[in-house]
Backbone:
DNA sequence: TGCGCCATGTCAGGGAATTGTCAGTCGGCA
DNA sequence: TGCCGACTGACAATTCCCTGACATGGCGCA
């Protein structure tokens, strides 16, 4: 899952990046409003963490312009300003949640999970499809309640597919969300990875839609 | 929009009902966990406002049982308990948002709008004409509820025609939208493609308007 | 330092689906 | 009847994806 972190304080940004990274997200950082707006408008992120106190364009203005352009990704606002009136402003500007500083990273992660969950249309941190169960909090996959050993990349792959089950996910989207922002892969690393996951989870969980991508069916 | 308000304190319930009512919602109230669970499980609400301090079944347990039964409506948790650990619990139990007491009604309304906005924005784009259903998310076509997989080009063709059903689409327009921007096809590739799609979806879905192009009737 | 293990990427081969081309046929219309 | 646009079947080139084998590189550990 690729996350855009918009934060101008370099130290906070570094800390959060570390936390988010170890929680399994792929983090990209923007340090001013212009950059943030451009990245959020042109790239696909699973979520955005947006600090309101930015140089350049104001955070709320960035958010409003995203929404005006139809960008739908969930946004978690992060700020020291915490009066209820400003919270209302943030939420009505199109934010999905609002977290006042100071905060515990556990709460940040929980709210992040929550808005991501909502945006992909599911309400439980545990995803079950057929025999396969994914537990995001424990970073664990079970097949018929037998826990399974997956490598980090394998886990990210199946987690992304399960979180987006019921729709086709293109190879490019998968690569962007599993690997970093790199484009221009002329390798078949992803196909090899798919093969390895299939060998562990069963060949029929992930269907290939030749020419489109891969899909995990919505239920059972 | 129908809202389920789960709140055991009669005075708070009455106040909130009045506020929500004047904001345009239709409010129903449950005062204990059993009742709340039953109503939420059998009725359809646009959103639920859930107080955690309930007699009978605990609020979190109610929420978990709803989610376990696949109930997807957005839930806003409302409680006096406000430590970060409990907030994490509530969000991970499947709540969409969390509001600690005391709160301003403006903020309640803003958060309610937010979670409702989220939940209505995720219906899947499906087009149906006669026996044929197109599911854009799955890149799949169903004929009399039998799923059918088309090649990428075939899919693009029928998707374009279905999205523009009810009017004649010229060959040139089709080519421009199925292939790249290239013009100047002196081949009959498109006709071959039309034939292949007809063989799979039935010959009468796509009508030929000799000299003009093709048309899929609006509905029926 | 060197060894081995694990995760991951790369490469080559192969099979199957996809797609374009072509030649021939059909059918409406003047 | 002749013409022209559209349809069809066959075939071949190409693309896409899977798989097994091997290479690389990090990391723990003796």
Residues:
């Amino acid at each position: 899952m690729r996350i855009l972190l918009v934060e101008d304080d370099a130290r906070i940004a570094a800390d959060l990046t570390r936390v988010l990274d170890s929680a399994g997200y792929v983090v990209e950082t923007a340090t001013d409003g212009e950059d943030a707006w451009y990245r959020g408008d042109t790239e696909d992120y699973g979520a955005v963490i947006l600090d309101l106190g930015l140089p350049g364009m104001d955070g709320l203005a960035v958010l409003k312009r995203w929404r005006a352009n139809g960008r739908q990704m969930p946004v978690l606002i992060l700020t020291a300003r915490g009066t209820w009136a400003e919270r209302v402003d943030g939420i009505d500007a199109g934010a999905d949640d609002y977290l006042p500083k100071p905060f515990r990273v556990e709460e940040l992660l929980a709210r992040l999970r929550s808005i991501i969950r909502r945006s992909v249309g599911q309400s439980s941190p545990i995803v079950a499809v057929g025999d396969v169960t994914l537990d995001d909090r424990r970073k664990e996959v079970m097949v018929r309640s037998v826990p399974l050993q997956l490598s980090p990349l394998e886990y990210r792959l199946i987690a992304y597919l399960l979180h987006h089950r019921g729709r086709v996910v293109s190879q490019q989207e998968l690569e962007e969300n599993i690997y970093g922002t790199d484009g221009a892969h002329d390798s078949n690393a992803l196909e090899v990875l798919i093969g390895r996951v299939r060998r562990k989870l069963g060949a029929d969980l992930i269907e290939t839609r030749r020419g489109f991508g891969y899909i995990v069916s919505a239920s059972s």
